[in-house]
Amino acid sequence: VSALRRRDLFRRLAVTVVLVCATVCSACDGDDSAPDRLADGSPAVLSKVSFEGVDVPVVATELRTPRGPASTPCAERSGAIDRTAVAGTSRTAISPDGRSLRACDWTARSGWCGVAYAQLRQTRPLDPRLTITCHDDDGEPLGFLWISPGSGTSYIVVTGPGYAEAYRVVRDLPVRVTTTQVDLETSSAVVETSEHARDGRLLRSRRVEAHVSG
Amino acid sequence: MTTRRVFATAFAAVFVLVFAGTAGGYHTRFVALNCNYASPTPTSYITRDGSAAVALRARHEGYQWAGGCWNDNDKDDSPNDPTTDAGTGGEGGDCSGFTFKVWREPLNTSDPSFHQWGMLRSVHGPYTAAAFKAGAGAPNVTASKSSLIKMDALASESHIGLVYAANPDGTDQIIEAKGEAYGTGIWTRTHRGSSSYGGVRRVGWS
To answer: ipTM of this model?
Structure first.
């Protein structure tokens, strides 16, 4: 009888352990879900494109022509575009002669908080021009940097912890992306990127390590 | 026997030439071999002359894109590194890394206090020249060019240098990390009269 009781107790204990594990694991799943808002408060929408090799939810970043107050640092440039991601917005403008890029970076916490300038060789900046002077909603430093798309790239996907963000490429120009993977101590950031064709096919992937410089 | 000796000599010569080429100016491993990551020392007192003394120790040293570590032997220990390559690990700061260290700024951009960094401490800091020009970060403010005095800065979107002395003709002696081909030193510059340049000041000088 006592052996039967012991076995029953053991079974109950095992069920409890399984239930606790299931609860903890589902909580972990919850942490990995994609955010529901972009930096400007608009709803975050999952990309309709299925990106080959990306196995986390992919948020589609917003792309639009600038709006808002003309007093912003990049307002005077024509042909500018704003990209809004989950943690921040960045405005990229190309100079009228097409030889340089300028960016202004924005977060809800810091306002307009970063500026970047790059001379172009062909359509590429000499380096990613990382800025880390902005902060996200939690007060953590946020990085902005340009990624230069390769031939045939329609989307650049940046994969972070738990989710990824897709940026649509326009006119083969460098795409200014955001990252929370910033190391203040070394004034650097690392981003895992992949480049995809219009149908989501993977073209290439690489890890970009950028440093604040110059 | 002679053929073998000739072959061995030729092989040795080629080996030496190939490896001397790659281990020459490029990748001198200056940072890896000499620099450290010691914590900075917070300090409550800093003067413009004290800051100039820090800057002068970097004079005649090298220039390194994204760098911020140098010694005081009055020579560039990593000459001819490829420009705009942060990975070469050579001696010197770049223009913004040099300014950050000479102005004794903290890594936290919200903190305006003073931090002394060792000369051989490898640190660049969070600001580019463009960020300095915009007055980004709590320690930095924009200032009119006519108001600039010793150890204030003139910054464009791609370069920054510190005013060491004003010349009577309206130009300035600028102490700066100028570029890979020049290293760090003092040059007469016309930045104050250039529309590309703005004035920047470190706040809190004693």
So the answer is: 0.86
Q: Does B142 touch chain A (CB under 8 A)?
A: no
Q: How far apart are CA B104 and CA A77, in angstroms?
A: 34
Interface of A with B in 21-80 (CB under 8 A): 73
- This prediction has a pTM of 0.85
> Kindly report the CA angle at B97 between B46 and B187, in degrees rounded to 5?
85
Beta strand extents in B36-193 (DSSP E only): 41-43, 68-69, 92-93, 114-116, 140-143, 153-155, 160-166, 172-179, 183-189
In DSSP terms, A45 is beta-bridged to A60
Is the Cβ–Cβ distance between B203 and B141 less than 8 Å?
yes
Binary contact (A214, B131; C-beta < 8 A)? no
Query: What are the pLDDT tens digits along chain A (214 aa)?
Result: 455 566 666 666 665 555 454 444 444 444 458 999 999 999 999 999 999 999 999 999 999 988 765 566 676 656 789 999 999 999 999 988 889 999 999 999 999 999 999 999 988 998 999 999 999 999 999 999 999 999 999 999 999 999 999 999 999 999 999 999 999 999 999 999 999 999 999 999 999 999 999 9
Contact yes or no for B118/B88 (Cβ under 8 A): no
Whether A132 contacts chain B with CB within 8 A: yes
Instruction: Say whether B130 and A115 touch across the interface (CB within 8 A).
Output: yes
CA separation for the pair B97, B124 (Å, rounded): 4
Q: Where along chain B do its domains lie?
A: 3-202
User: Which residues in B lie closer than 8 A to residue A115 (C-beta atoms)?
Assistant: 128, 130-131, 133-134, 136, 157
Dihedral over Cα of A41, A46, A49, A54: its sign: positive
Sheet holding B198-202, edge to edge: B140-143, B198-202, B153-155, B160-166, B172-179, B183-189
**Which residues are CB-neighbours of A41 under 8 A, at least 6 positions away?**
A108
Chain centre to alpha carbon of residue B117: 13
| Token reading at B117 | 């960094």
Residue tagged 């060792």 (tokens):
B118
